[in-house]
Amino acid sequence: MQRGLKWLAVSTTLVMLLILLGGALVTKTESGAGCGKSWPLCHGELIPSDITPELVIELSHRVVSGAGGLLVLALSVWSWFALKHIKEARFLAVVSFFFLLLQALIGAAAVVWGQSDAVLALHFGISLISFASVFLLTLMVFEVDKKFDASSVLLDSKMKFHIYGIIIYSYIVVYTGALVRHTNASLACPSVPFCSQNRFFPVQMHEWVQMGHRFAATLIFVWILIAFIHAYKYYRNQKVVYYGWMVAFILVSLQAISGVMIIFTRLNLFVALLHALIISCLFGVLSYLTLVATRSKTK
Questions:
Q1: What H or E segment, with its residue span, contains residue 297?
Q2: Is the preceding peptide bond at 40 cis, omega within 30 degrees of 0?
Q3: How far is it, in rounded angstroms, from Cα 43 to Cα 36?
Q4: Would you say 133 and 16 are in contact if contact means Cβ atoms under 8 Å apart?
Q5: pLDDT tens by residue, 118-131
Q6: Catalytic machinery residues
Q7: Which pTM does this prediction carry?
Q8: What are the structural domain ranges in the chain?
Q9: Would you give the distance in Å from CA 165 to the centre of its chain?
Q10: Interior CA angle at 287 toward 128 and 223, to 5°?
Q11: Residue 1 carries which DSSP code?
């Protein structure tokens, strides 16, 4: 039974990652209207007659999301009973399914009635919470075999501040990035690091959105670097914390590089999807560090 749960957990995590990337693909290719204002069918048809690239992308995302919903439901129910001895498991089981359902409803509402850019920007963040919950459930499944050991970790107050602060702030950064995409501000500032080679400050709304995200992303890079240095100095004997921050710093560095490459490649689709993939993985790592912090004792 445990082996089956492991397979289900890993499969669900991978599918959730595909859902995140699929949502990013829909946004970046402007395929949200690929099925018209019909949901869950495309143009009111079970089998669409007028096939377009936008329709294929949007319909594929809906199919994968539907399959992901069934997998998350199965994992949530199984984990509810199999991991009942782990206090966080039932909470994560509920959160993972609830937020996946919520993002599906927001997506459906956007198709049928339309939504503002500010609301649509929440869509990716909500999916990210569901993915992180599934990811943590997967780690707990393997934790039963003692392959992950978080309960013996000791953290000082400064490290806990970094962990809790960065996970909350990272969600703000994710939102600003999603807002950049939904307001079509990705190429509003063609110069790096400033918006233009001739001036330091933005002058119109799209430029403010783009530069606001750059500032937020720069701050999280610096903050994660500070947390990693703290882990390097004081937590090299606690591998979960030390390697967690090492991976987080590597991912945030790659995130920064891919963000710059989006500008230089003029919004290359592969680079843009890589950008979404990296932030998803980073949020997963930060979520695990948060779980560790909630379980740990204070030095």
A1: strand 297-298
A2: yes
A3: 5
A4: no
A5: 677 788 888 899 99
A6: 58
A7: 0.89
A8: 1-146, 149-299
A9: 17
A10: 100
A11: -
